[in-house]
Write a structure and sequence with these properties.
alpha/beta
Length: 355
């Protein structure tokens, strides 16, 4: 029979065994957990250290790259500043060179102009001695160049007889002009007959000199006077001392001057005049000069002469008289008449200047 003491001892033994088991089990489990936790902590430290090392390396690389970028920026800024300085020096040097070249060019041009003016003033003397000159031109052409040509003729020791200006009304297609001309000639004429009569009388007046009879001279002078009264022509005698009919000899030379802006007068009046004078057997008694026109190419005036053999063999032509050298060339070419030549810069010219 189990007594109370045995029972108490048994119960105590059971609880003691349980306590010992719990104590032993707890110690074993705690040791494993601690070891696991320590391993995890160690791994974390290693990972952290590696991460810190990688971060430090990245920071170092970034810092190095930034320093390189800053160094490159500084170097680039220095190069830019140096380039700007070199560019400024080059610009300043170029400006000074351009200024020096312009000053030299201006000085040379002034010297050349003075020289040419002196030559142009001196050379005309005696070049056209023994000849008499009449200019024929449409009103409205360049008066500056006209004046320079006129002064050359006046200073050349030749006899300048004035300029016969063809007025805008001198148009054979204008009914009013044809009516006025018919009244002058006193008859019923066709337009072609009126044109022929007008051209014939002007040609006679230009070439009359001292060879025509006094009666013929009077008739021609009367026609020219009536043409002037009708506003068809105008005889400008500025710098002129006499008229064609007052000459003692018939050696009159005619200088036709025109530009591309007045081709109507050129074809209707000047070309027929040239042909009329040529058909009368005159050769080498004058020249045709073309002035530059602002809106038209050069050549439309002189090429009409150069392309017709009869006119080309009888009249000298000049397609460029804009400069002092060209006007001196004109004077030399005129002095060589009756030897005919074609001068200027166009392909149709024989040579640039008379030789």
């Amino acid at each position: 029979m189990i007594n109370l003491r045995y029972h108490i001892v048994s119960v105590v033994a059971v609880f003691l065994a349980l306590g010992i088991g719990l104590a032993l089990g707890s110690t074993f489990v705690d040791s494993i957990l601690v070891n696991e936790l320590e391993d995890q902590v160690n791994e974390f430290k290693v990972g952290r250290d590696e991460a810190i090392e990688i971060a430090d390396q990245a920071v170092a690389e970034t810092e190095g790259a930034r320093e390189k970028i800053e160094a490159l920026g500084v170097e680039r800024l220095k190069e830019k500043q140096l380039h700007d300085l070199e560019l400024e020096d080059l610009r300043r040097s170029s400006t000074e060179q351009v200024r020096a070249i312009r000053e030299l060019s201006d000085a040379q041009q002034k010297t050349s102009t003075l020289t040419l003016n002196a030559i142009e003033t001196l050379i005309p003397r005696g070049r056209l001695e023994g000849t008499s000159w009449m200019i024929v031109a449409p009103s409205g052409i360049d008066l500056v160049t006209m004046s320079e040509i006129r002064e050359i003729l006046a200073r050349s020791d030749g006899e300048y007889l004035g300029t016969l200006w063809m007025q805008p009304a001198m148009n054979f297609e204008n009914p009013q002009t044809l009516t006025a001309l018919a009244d002058i000639f006193g008859g019923a004429f066709s337009a072609a007959e009126i044109s022929d009569l007008t051209i014939s009388n002007i040609a006679s007046w230009l070439t009359a000199g001292g060879e025509a009879s006094s009666k013929d001279v009077e008739l021609v002078d009367e026609v020219i006077e009536q043409l002037a009264n009708q506003g068809l022509v105008r005889h400008d005698r500025y710098l002129s001392l006499m008229t064609p009919d007052q000459l003692s000899s018939g050696d009159i030379r005619v200088l036709f001057i025109n530009d591309a802006a007045h081709l109507g007068v050129h074809h209707e009046v000047l070309i027929p005049l040239l042909k009329e004078i040529t058909e009368r057997g005159e050769r080498g008694i004058g020249a045709v000069v073309e002035l530059a026109s602002q809106n038209s190419p050069i050549g439309e005036v002189v090429n009409k002469i150069r392309n017709e053999s009869g006119l080309a063999e009888s009249w000298s032509t000049f397609d460029d008289v804009g400069s002092s050298e060209d006007r001196l060339g004109l004077l030399v070419g005129l002095s060589r008449l009756p030897s005919v030549g074609h001068y200027g810069s166009l392909p149709t010219a024989d040579e640039r200047f008379p030789r």
